[in-house]
Amino acid sequence: MNAIPAKVAGVKEVIMVVPAPKGVLNPLVLAAAHLAQVDRVFTIGGAQAVAALAYGTETIPAVDKITGPGNKYVAAAKRAVFGQVGIDMIAGPSEVLVYAEGEAQDRADWLAMDLLSQAEHDRIAQAIFVTTSEQQLADVAAEIEKALAELPKADIARDSLKNRGALILVKDRVEGMAVINRVAPEHLELSVDHPDVLLNDIRHAGAIFMGRHTPEAIGDYCAGPNHVLPTSGTARFSSPLGVYDFQKKSSIIYCTEAGSKPLAETADILAQREDLEAHARSARYRYQ
Is 34 a residue of the active site? Predict the structure, then answer.
C-alpha cells in the first residue's frame, strides 16, 4: 500500500520498518516487500521506528517522508516529527460506517460481521451502523451479540463497540447522508440496491464500498485502491494515500527583459506600501 505508489512516483529508495516480536519476522511480510520492490527493511516498529526514520540512527537513515497507518503511539509520533520529516496523514484507529435501509435483500448477519470486522481491530476502533429501519437495527444488534459469543477476539470487539460503537436509526435517506458526512468515516459501506445513486450526496469518506457484495474486508486485503485512509473525521480534507503523496512540485518563474518591466513596476509599488525598501529597489533596478 505504501511501496507501490512510491515506486510509481519514482522514489529512488523505499525503506520499510516492521516489528519482529521476539525476533520473529513473518515471511509473508518479506515476500510482500520483495514483490513491491522495497529497497531496505529494518526490524523495528512503533513510535521508536517513526523517530528513527525522522532523525536517523547509526543503522537507519533519516528519510524525507514517512507514510503508513499505526496505533495511537505511531500516530502521536508522526504528529510529533512532522516538520522534521514529511508525513502522509495521521491514520488510525480504524473505522467503519455501514449504511442500509432495511431492504429485503439485506442479511443482518452480514451487516453485523462487517461491523465486527473493524471492532476486532482494536479496543478504540469504531464501528457505526446507520439504517432507516427500526427492525433492521434490532436484527443487527441481535446478530452482533450472537457473533460475539464465538469470535476469537470477542473481548476486543466488545470493548470497541461499548466505547466507540453506535447503532443509529435515521428517519430517511437524507438524514442518513447527513450522518455519514458528519462522521466522515474511513470506510463507508453502502449496503443498498443502487449505491451509485448515493454517491453525489456523499462528501466525506475515505473509501466507499458499493453494495452488499463489497465488504470492507476485501478492501483491507485485495480490492485494489490504496487502503491507507484518513480517519477521525479527516476525510473532510484528506484523501487516500496515492502516487501524489510521493510527488512534489516547484514553481518556475522566468521573465525576459521586456516582460520583467511591468511586473517590476508593480512589485516596486507594492513593496513601498509594505515599507520594504530593499524589495522595492530590487524590482526598480530592473525597469529604470
Answer: no
The two most distant CA atoms of the chain are separated, in Å, by 84
Local structure of 174: helix, strand or coil: helix
Q: CATH homologous superfamily for 3-91?
A: Nitrogenase molybdenum iron protein domain (3.40.50.1980)
The whole-angstrom separation of Cα 281 and Cα 267 is 10
Q: Is the peptide bond before 93 cis (omega within 30 degrees of 0)?
A: yes
Quick one: DSSP state of residue 89? -
Matching fold, domains 3-91 and 95-227: yes
**What are residue 95's DSSP bridge partners?**
126
Distance CA 70, CA 80 (A): 14
Tell me which residue of 54, 74, 183, 174 sits closest to 126, measured CA to CA. 183
Domain coordinates in residue numbering, the chain: 3-91, 95-227, 257-287
**Crossing angle (nearest 10°) for helices 154-164 and 134-148:** 150
Q: Using an 8 Å Cβ cutoff, are 157 and 115 in contact?
A: no
pLDDT at position 92 over 80 = no
For this structure, is 121 an active site residue? no
Contact of 2 with 68, CB cutoff 8 Å:
yes
pTM over 0.70: yes
Query: Within 10 A of 99 (CB to CB), how many other CB atoms are there?
Result: 26
More confident residue, 71 or 191: 191
**Of the candidates 40, 39, 48, the residue with the CA atom closest to the CA atom of residue 19:** 48
Q: List residues bridging with 17 in a β-sheet.
A: 42
Which CATH number, 3.30.1380.10, 3.30.200.20, 3.40.190.10, 3.40.50.1980, labels domain 95-227?
3.40.50.1980
pLDDT band at 91 (very low <50, low <70, confident <90, very high): confident
Which residue in the list 95, 120, 143, 186 is annotated as catalytic?
186
